[in-house]
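[Automated response] Your request has been received and processed.

Submitted sequence:
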Amino acid sequence: MLGNLGNRFVFPAPQPSYGQQSYKRNLCWIPWNSVISPNRVGTEANSSGIPCLWFPAPKAATVILFFHANAEDLGMSFAVLRHIRDQFKVNVLAAEYPGYGLLHAMEPSEDAVYEVALTTFRFLVDEIGVRYSQIILFGRSLGSGPAVFLAAQYPVGGLILVSAFSSIKAAVQSIVGRVLAWTFTERFPNSRIIANVSCSTLFIHGEADSLIPAEHSLKLFKRCRARKLLVTPSKMEHNSNLFGDASFLAVPAIHFFGFPGYYTASPPRLPAYLFEDPANRARMLKDRKESLPPMTRPSWLCDCLAKGDGQQMDVTFCRQENSVEDITIRFKEQESDPNEPDELKGGQSDIHGRSPRDNPPCHALDDGDLGRDWISVLKQPLDLGGTRQVQLYGTTTKKHSLKREILQWPSDAQIRAPRILRLTEATYKTPTGRF
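Generated structure:
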């Protein structure tokens, strides 16, 4: 009973603002994944798939995967999605939540939202061929939950969090007080898994937000160990138009991520059958599956029986064995040593990782001691402007970062996920040689 009451509070879905005949050029249906959601595949109620809005940009290689807030659906997000595409010159894909819009008949829950997020993300990667580094996750309010959930597991190109909460329980406490918040089951524990995020992360939270105080984003910002930026516009409220003032989103995002992104001759494009009428599309998918040869289990989903080379395995979420607990690591703020040189201290450029050889394949990150040595660098010479693969082991702290391994750290050296180091000034010596 309390769980149902909590779901109604967390997912206050409005009346659907769009229908199957709305936005015909943008509305598409991504099929459910039989591995991620086996109970939804093959049922008449879910035959249409996940309704999404797709905004392609000419020659753009980057895709922003957008997760909307809890009191709106895709129809209410249409204008801001189009603005994101036009302002940043990127492709935009937004997925609907269970219980919202054209999925209004489906029961909303934390797990159901994760299913939608993981299914759309894997479709971009596995079916469309979008690389992890080309995907930027964007979560607003409730959407920060699935956005952080994905960013904590995959080496994506970036993460944007607008009006995010540290956790649902903390958000409820901010609204109704500590006593009532105690009755709520924890959902979307962003503050517990944000330390696993290794991509560049932009936090935006208005100081005038009376619903979710800006302290939530500040807490997430402090726990995030990647390259990061926190922006708190003084006039921005929880439901402010993000493009009503350039200082809210446009200026910070352009400066932080360098939009527009790079162009490509083969930009990501969704197949035409996804835009067909759901009934016709279901028949087309059935015919298409019957004509294809049998497929093996997708290599990206861990089944704990993988025999391949561990170095080639993706760090993914095993729905059958894992939960959010498995991608949570202990995170403690550590005071820096005042006697330690500045160039040896960790900072916003710290990244974390693990060795697939050291950990079971179904665990996203090691839950062991954060203080152990974790990195080795390939020692071949590296030319100006070149790149070098970096092998990561375990996790990092402020005192155990890549900077500690480099005696001379150039200010414009860049660390890019997954595990690529680029030197742009010269070749620098390390304690063990050159690279």
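Summary generated for your ticket: The chain has two domains: 2-257, 335-435. The longest strand covers residues 50-55.
If you did not submit this request, please reply to this message.
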